[in-house]
Amino acid sequence: MKKPRFAWTLTAVAALAVGTVVVMQSCAPSAGSADMGAIARARGLSDADVVAALKTYQPSGARDEYLTFASGGQSGQVLVIGVPSMRLLKMIAAFTPEPWQGFGYGSEEHKTLLAAGRMAGRDIGWGDSHHPALSETDGDYDGQFLFINDKANPRLAVIDLRDFETKQIVANPNMGTNHGGAFVTPNTEYVIEPSQYSVPLWKDYAEMDRYAEDYRGVVTFWKFDRQKGRLDAAASFSLELPPYWHDLSDAGKGPSFGWAFLNSFNTEMATGGVEQGKPPFEAGASQNDMDYMHVINWQKAAQVATQAGKTRMARGMKVIPMETAVAEGLLYLIPEPKSPHGSDVTPDGRFIVVSGKLDPHVTVYSWEKIKAAIDGKQFTDNDRYGIPILDFASVINGQLEVGLGPLHTQFDDKGNGYTSIFLDTRVTKWRLDPLEVLDQVDVQYNVGHLVAAEGDTKSPDGKYLIAMNKWALDRFNDVGPLLPQNFQLIDISGDKMQVLYDMPIGVGEPHYAQMIKADKLKPFQTYPQIGYDPGTMGPAKNAVLPGKERIERRGNEVHVYMTAVRSHFNPEHIRVRQGDKVTIHITSVEQAHDATHGFAIAKYNINLSLEPGEAQTVSFVADTPGVFPYYCTEFCSALHLEMTGYLLVEPQ
Ligand code: RUQ
Ligand code: CUA
Question: 461 and 389 in one domain?
Fold first, then answer.
């Protein structure tokens, strides 16, 4: 009789888990066998390695418990990664044209979408994405939408998690760059986008010696229309801020609901000029011992923004000027240690954790004390723009030394914080109340952000943490001088943290990520009906049903109504004259899960991805005469190579 495999496996696992790699003599037949102990020894795996493998390995067909949405850095995309397996599931095209998803290769939907992201009169072909934010309901991820910023070209993108596709890009005309967003308020009322490097706000140009007078920071609260799945520029508002450089933000929750917390650095207002013998920015912007956390009452600001005379328009956007913000009690400053980076509100909303890049502590501010100081008008001073400053010592709950170069903090379900320590290249686990360091684990190397399972919501899960390391050095095979980044999965379920897995990220430089319980996501398997428009998430105006395929000429415009199904396009010949404007409406009439077709026209820079039911329109001027095959770019069936046709462009 065959040995029951299940029992064998359990015995072996038990033996391994107690800390000894045992060679299971009794069931170790020959070399290269399924003997786990022998395999572990042959591969030089320690007990801890084997345990880590058991905690991360997913057998074929098994699904991950969490999905992590990570920024794709300079790729301008979003990475979707399964946890604990750390398998890369998808790269969502967000700011950068992406051919597999047919994003930006001819479709009218993407032309309109990307055109909204034009800046300075230019098409922008990339993004520097840093911070993804999942939509929230009552302070918890709801699995419906994802927002992400583009730091280089101050923009935000909105991704619908029904089809994991980008639906909107908005450009912010009043910023030089952004950084501290995207972060959402607890019901996704607003998406927060703060600027980073200040530029002139009320005029288009000002010399650097007019920095203090004319340069300004800005924070924009983009109103999110959940029904439409779009940011609504007309209902959004901004606040004018001093020309400090603004960094990460977070929204209050629970008792601090209605408020937002925004770090800043370069409160020195250094203007650089190393080439003229002046101190470089790195020195000039880090002289002060304290910078300022900005405390913003967004709920009240939203009301003020609707009142006559309380806002000014700047480049078409509503801005609350600083004087109004001060007069209305919308904006306060609190000193924070030297060059802070992360600002993270605790799950219960009672504390705000700030880490200073040049200070070895986390500083824990008490919302209760901040609110009391604001209500009691206990200010020590104003900054030069008249913004009231609260007394540092009286609003903090405490400080805790966590290591050199603390950056960002995430939380678990047991009242602990996890802070990334860049210079010491480790993660520090610490208790919030009373403040105490509990554990530290080395990571490889130079951790930037970290992300825990639902770790910035009101109810974190604990379990897993990913250290998002900037340097990889000796971790992977050499691939030239540009190295991947290293995402390290860490088990945080026990008292001691354990690094489980190294995942190289060979694209862009990811910054932040968010990790959501996979069962909160309810994506479409196929589009809900044949002839569906992902742009509007509804029936497509130009859907083509089987039997209705045709070609119509109207003057020099040619309209092609086409269907795609395994394994042909209909029509298979498109004959036009040089100079004609050609519009192809194409519908995939597939309903089978995963039956995707592509549609590419040779030499015309056109490629669409048509998922089951999807309708797309592509328009172009047939300016080059000749014969151009079009074909399906997805290997959809055995006769996929036959899924083709000819575009004949007759010379003038
Ligand atoms: S950044 S490594 Cu969020 Cu852009 Cu901190
Ligand atoms: Cu359709 Cu290949």
Answer: yes
Q: What is the pLDDT of residues 482-506, one digit of tens each?
A: 999 999 999 999 999 999 999 999 9
Which residues span the domain enclosing 31? 10-55
Classify residue 278: in a domain, yes or no: no
The first and second tokens of residue 54, run together, are 């058991």
Domain membership flag for residue 3:
no
User: 71, 341, 419: which to mutate for ligand 1, most atoms within 8 A of CB?
Assistant: 341
pLDDT by residue (tens digit) across 538-581? 999 999 999 999 999 999 999 999 999 999 999 999 999 999 99
Query: In a mutational test of the pocket of ligand 1, which residue from 193, 407, 514 has the highest number of ligand atoms less than 8 Å from its CB?
Result: 407
CA angle 167, 168, 172 (to 5 degrees): 165
DSSP 259-309: EEEEEEE-TT-----GGGTSPPHHHHTT-SSEEEEEEEEHHHHHHHTTSTT
Q: Are residues 474 and 595 in the same domain?
A: no
Dihedral (Cα; 356, 362, 368, 369), 10-degree rounding: -70
Residue 263 CA to residue 242 CA, distance in Å, equals: 12
Query: Based on the domain organization, do 430 and 449 belong to the same domain?
Result: yes
Q: Which atom of ligand 2 is nearest to the CA of 596?
A: 1
510 and 572 part of one domain: no
Residue with the nearest Cα to atom 1 of ligand 2? 597
CATH label of the domain that carries residue 617: 2.60.40.420
Q: With a threshold of 0.90, does the pTM exceed it?
A: yes
Q: Is the CB of 142 under 6 A from ligand 2?
A: no
Query: Could you give the number of structural domains in the chain?
Result: 3
Ligand lying nearest the CA atom of residue 179: 1
Site residues for ligand 1, CB cut-off 6 Å: 130-131, 179, 248, 341, 407-408, 448-449, 511-512
Residues 75 and 173 placed together within one structural domain of the fold: yes
487 in the same domain as 387:
yes
